[in-house]
């Protein structure tokens, strides 16, 4: 890239030097050789530039190369052509005209393919071209035509050359309204076109005076223009010309007006310059009419363009870019209009959420998730009536608002469930979707946002309890209570109101506690004890569960160390702590636990982390890595509530778990329901095959204990041996002083840190 820049600037230096020698006019032979070297050298430099810089779109550069070649050929044959008669005298002009056409076509290709046609720019170009054309015709072409010593066509062409240069400059200027304006290659092209214009104006001036003799000084702008064109092709930035993009330029910007206003004033300027007697009134009249028509079209176009921009901004502000559906703002506006005009008919909202959508994004990527949303939007859009508005609220949440009876909303919800039950085919994937749907009806003077929130609440209730739920005022009270719990829980974490209780895990063969599960408890200073069933889901939703989990872990390890130092900790006794999904996706968990074990001088076998089946079902690589790290510390891993999710040998074998806890739902029916016994038997067989320990939780009766013993389940947990209690009460009931071993003091742990 650096070599390309140096080459382009070297060409400029050589071109300036040769042009200076040419201006000295050392003789026709010397000047002919210099012009030939510079002309065909430009063509060679352009070919080298395209070959070295390899632009993604070579077409415009090939056209510019052909343009330069045509110009060079025209210069080479012009001397011969002037000595001929008839049409042969125009041979040089034909090649020059071809050069203009090829150059204009090359720049147009960049504009068309990369920037796109801009209506304002095209009309502005016509306005400026009309003004420039009138000047070229009045002051150059018509005076030249009236000179009788040469063919009128030759004089006319000489007068119109500046007009063609102006057209080229207008194309370059239009390209300048894009990101190309910052490229060195673009600036070289602009200089080249300016050089052509300066040279042609010079020849047009002497042509209007009857002189058609070549001059070294008049040729100088052409030579410098060729030099700039060669530098443009050699500079590495020429490759970026293929990827220029338009910039947001105002329809009536100062830059545009600086070109348009002088062009509009040309008829008046011509009249003033000629004293009111132009050479021919026809060009003046045609130009004036054309300028007026272009200006009117330009004004109308600007108004239409602004209107289109406003419509586009309004559409983007009220519609979802992915599905094209109305967004939440548009839906609430539509609902407000329905409430004011059709209140007697009733207004309802059906609010739905796609269950498991996050798994689609996690497993197949966001592209698959987007395709799923688009297909769901298409299907559901076909189910809604013309009077209804179907909108995407956010993420995987949609809503339909309409007026009518409640039965219409319920019927739509059923049709939605039926439609989504059909498989959705995506590239390489077949998905089945299920939606949780909430319905809210307008029953009082509430506004649109309130109605939408009510439907949202009903949807969340449906997610927890069933597929479709209709809002009732009790849900609003539930939300208020949830908010109160969240605020109080945050304060409780800050004020250390949480504490840890311990429930024994018993070896039924000896009746002694072999471990304890650490369970968080919360005693509110006003409301008293609050059940974990109430505050744990809130902690999970708000992210407080991570801080609470760290507190329970720290407190459990600290208590184990205290029991050990008091001589109460039996050999192989361990504490079991629940781990949340957030903790298991955090790679720092292993370091936190390792530090805790080292600080309290405990071996890894003194701790077991309990995880739920749902965490394993996600199959996140992060979770696998964290669990593997914990096992490397010697920590046990227990699957809690086993049997309630998608119990499978496959994930038990993939994850480094050590224990399976049979859910209380199956333990309750032991001795009563043969089905529960069969399930527990299957879990024990599966665990035994994988060399996993089995613990039964929720054991409350001796009958349940005896059935479990018959199934070879000797580790149990439940109210039969006691509820979870504070650490001092647990020690009194389930721990007993150990006999000191002089060879190995009880307060030291093997395997610590």
From TrEMBL:
<dbReference type="InterPro" id="IPR052155">
    <property type="entry name" value="Biofilm_reg_signaling"/>
</dbReference>
<keyword id="KW-0472">Membrane</keyword>
<feature type="transmembrane region" description="Helical">
    <location>
        <begin position="154"/>
        <end position="176"/>
    </location>
</feature>
<dbReference type="InterPro" id="IPR035919">
    <property type="entry name" value="EAL_sf"/>
</dbReference>
<keyword id="KW-1133">Transmembrane helix</keyword>
<feature type="domain" description="GGDEF">
    <location>
        <begin position="345"/>
        <end position="475"/>
    </location>
</feature>
<feature type="transmembrane region" description="Helical">
    <location>
        <begin position="218"/>
        <end position="236"/>
    </location>
</feature>
<feature type="transmembrane region" description="Helical">
    <location>
        <begin position="30"/>
        <end position="49"/>
    </location>
</feature>
<dbReference type="InterPro" id="IPR001633">
    <property type="entry name" value="EAL_dom"/>
</dbReference>
<feature type="transmembrane region" description="Helical">
    <location>
        <begin position="188"/>
        <end position="206"/>
    </location>
</feature>
<feature type="domain" description="EAL">
    <location>
        <begin position="482"/>
        <end position="738"/>
    </location>
</feature>
<feature type="transmembrane region" description="Helical">
    <location>
        <begin position="61"/>
        <end position="81"/>
    </location>
</feature>
<dbReference type="InterPro" id="IPR043128">
    <property type="entry name" value="Rev_trsase/Diguanyl_cyclase"/>
</dbReference>
<dbReference type="Pfam" id="PF00563">
    <property type="entry name" value="EAL"/>
</dbReference>
<dbReference type="InterPro" id="IPR029787">
    <property type="entry name" value="Nucleotide_cyclase"/>
</dbReference>
<feature type="transmembrane region" description="Helical">
    <location>
        <begin position="122"/>
        <end position="142"/>
    </location>
</feature>
<feature type="transmembrane region" description="Helical">
    <location>
        <begin position="7"/>
        <end position="24"/>
    </location>
</feature>
<feature type="transmembrane region" description="Helical">
    <location>
        <begin position="257"/>
        <end position="276"/>
    </location>
</feature>
<keyword id="KW-0812">Transmembrane</keyword>
<protein>
    <recommendedName>
        <fullName>Diguanylate cyclase/phosphodiesterase</fullName>
    </recommendedName>
</protein>
<feature type="transmembrane region" description="Helical">
    <location>
        <begin position="87"/>
        <end position="110"/>
    </location>
</feature>
<dbReference type="Pfam" id="PF00990">
    <property type="entry name" value="GGDEF"/>
</dbReference>
<dbReference type="InterPro" id="IPR000160">
    <property type="entry name" value="GGDEF_dom"/>
</dbReference>
């Amino acid at each position: 890239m650096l070599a390309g820049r140096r080459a382009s600037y070297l060409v400029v230096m050589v071109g300036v030097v040769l042009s200076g020698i040419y201006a000295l006019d050392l003789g026709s032979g010397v000047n002919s050789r210099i012009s030939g070297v510079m002309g065909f050298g430009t063509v060679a430099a352009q070919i080298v530039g395209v070959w070295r810089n390899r632009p993604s779109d070579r077409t415009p550069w090939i056209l510019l190369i052909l343009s330069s070649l045509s110009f060079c050929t025209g210069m080479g044959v012009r001397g011969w052509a002037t000595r001929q008669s008839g049409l042969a005298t125009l041979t040089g002009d034909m090649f020059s005209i071809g050069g203009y056409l090829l150059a204009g076509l090359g720049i147009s290709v960049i504009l068309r393919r990369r920037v796109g046609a801009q209506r304002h720019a095209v009309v502005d170009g016509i306005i400026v071209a009309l003004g420039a054309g009138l000047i070229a015709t009045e002051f150059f072409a018509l005076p030249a035509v009236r000179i009788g010593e040469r063919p009128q066509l030759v004089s006319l062409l000489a007068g119109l050359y500046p007009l063609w240069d102006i057209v080229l400059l207008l194309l370059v200027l239009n390209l300048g309204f894009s990101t190309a304006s910052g490229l060195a290659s673009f600036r070289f092209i602009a200089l080249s076109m300016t050089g052509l214009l300066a040279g042609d104006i010079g020849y047009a001036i002497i042509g209007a005076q009857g002189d058609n003799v070549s001059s070294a000084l008049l040729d100088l702008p052409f030579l410098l223009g060729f030099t700039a064109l060669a530098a443009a092709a050699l500079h590495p930035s020429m490759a970026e010309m293929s990827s220029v993009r338009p910039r947001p330029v105002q329809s009536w910007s100062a830059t545009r007006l600086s070109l348009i206003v002088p062009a509009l004033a040309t008829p008046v300027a011509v009249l003033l310059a000629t004293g009111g007697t132009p050479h021919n009134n026809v060009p003046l009249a045609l130009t004036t009419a054309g300028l007026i028509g272009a200006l009117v079209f330009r004004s109308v176009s600007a108004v239409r363009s602004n209107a289109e921009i406003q419509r586009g901004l309004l559409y983007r502000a009220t519609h979802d870019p992915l599905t094209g559906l109305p967004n939440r703002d548009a839906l609430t506006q539509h609902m407000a209009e329905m409430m004011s005009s059709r209140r007697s008919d009733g207004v309802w909202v059906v609010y739905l959420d796609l269950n498991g959508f996050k798994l689609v994004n996690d497993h197949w990527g966001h592209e698959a998730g987007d395709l799923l949303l688009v297909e769901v939007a298409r299907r559901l859009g076909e189910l809604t009536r013309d009077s209804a508005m179907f909108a995407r609220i956010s993420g995987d949440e949609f809503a339909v608002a309409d007026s009518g009876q409640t039965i219409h909303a319920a019927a739509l919800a059923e049709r939605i469930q039926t439609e989504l039950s059909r498989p959705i085919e995506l590239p390489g994937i077949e998905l089945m979707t299920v939606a949780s749907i909430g319905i809210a009806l307008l029953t009082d003077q509430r506004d649109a946002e309130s109605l939408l929130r009510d439907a949202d609440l009903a949807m969340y209730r449906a997610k927890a309890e069933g597929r479709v739920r209709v809002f009732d005022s009790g849900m609003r009270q539930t939300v208020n209570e949830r908010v109160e719990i969240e605020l109080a829980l945050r304060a409780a974490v800050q004020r250390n109101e949480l504490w840890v209780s311990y429930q024994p895990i018993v070896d039924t063969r000896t009746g002694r506690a072999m471990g304890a599960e650490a369970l968080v408890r919360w005693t509110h200073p006003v409301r008293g004890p609050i059940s974990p069933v109430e505050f744990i889901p809130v902690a999970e939703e708000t992210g407080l569960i991570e801080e609470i989990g760290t507190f329970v872990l720290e407190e459990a390890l600290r208590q184990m160390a205290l029991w050990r130092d008091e001589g109460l900790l039996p050999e192989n006794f361990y504490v079991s702590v629940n781990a949340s999904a957030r903790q298991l996706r955090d790679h720092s968990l292993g370091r936190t636990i390792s530090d805790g074990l080292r600080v309290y001088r405990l071996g890894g076998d003194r701790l077991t982390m309990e995880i739920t089946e749902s965490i394993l079902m996600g199959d996140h690589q992060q979770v696998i890595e964290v669990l593997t790290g914990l096992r490397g510390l010697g920590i046990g891993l227990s699957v809690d509530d086993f049997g309630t999710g998608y119990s499978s040998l496959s994930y038990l074998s993939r994850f480094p778990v050590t224990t399976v806890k049979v859910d209380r739902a199956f333990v309750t029916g032991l001795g009563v329901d043969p089905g529960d016994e069969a399930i527990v038997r299957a879990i024990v067989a599966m665990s035994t095959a994988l060399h996993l320990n089995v613990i039964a939780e929720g054991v409350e009766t001796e009958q349940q204990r005896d059935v479990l013993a018959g199934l070879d389940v000797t580790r149990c947990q439940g109210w039969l041996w006691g509820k979870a209690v504070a650490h001092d009460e647990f020690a009194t009931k389930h721990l007993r002083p150990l006999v000191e071993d002089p060879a190995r003091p009880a307060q030291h742990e093997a395997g610590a840190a």
